[in-house]
Design a protein that fits this description.
Porin, eight-stranded antiparallel barrel, 8 strands, Lipoprotein
Length: 131
């Protein structure tokens, strides 16, 4: 009886570990698929075409992006991040002039239109599209 219980516990442990491996492996695949689906260069303006600034980033086949924001100054502040299979993305960077950190969140829609926000000392919305 004790032997059956031990075997059952070992089998359960193997199943749990297998499930963890499968789940952790899927995130990389989703990022790669996102990169392929959304690869390209995107750009636009800040604050609904108010003249507050401009931005541009390029999504690679791996699902990562690099780019810049030029909002409330003439300096281009570099940023980087990653995109998910649903088109949502997150990233971060530091302002060129003061070195203040900022975060980026947004989404690329199925029609390749981009919306999001940059949050640092101020929160600024941005929008644009694929070039």
């Amino acid at each position: 009886m004790k032997q059956k219980r031990s075997i059952s516990m070992v089998c359960a442990l193997i199943l749990i570990i297998g499930a963890m491996v499968v789940m952790s492996g899927c995130s990389g695949v989703n990022n790669k698929l996102a990169g392929i689906a959304y690869a390209g260069t995107y750009g636009g303006e800040g604050e609904n075409h108010s003249g507050v600034g401009y931005w541009e980033f390029t999504v690679g086949a791996s699902g990562n992006f690099t780019g810049w924001f030029q909002i409330l100054s003439d300096a281009k502040s570099e940023c980087s991040g990653s995109i998910k299979a649903d088109g949502s993305f997150t990233g971060s960077g530091k302002t060129k002039l003061a070195g203040t950190p900022f975060t980026i969140t947004g989404k690329i829609a199925s029609d390749n239109k981009v919306t999001g926000t940059v949050q640092g000392l101020n929160t600024v919305s941005f929008s644009g599209s694929k070039k």
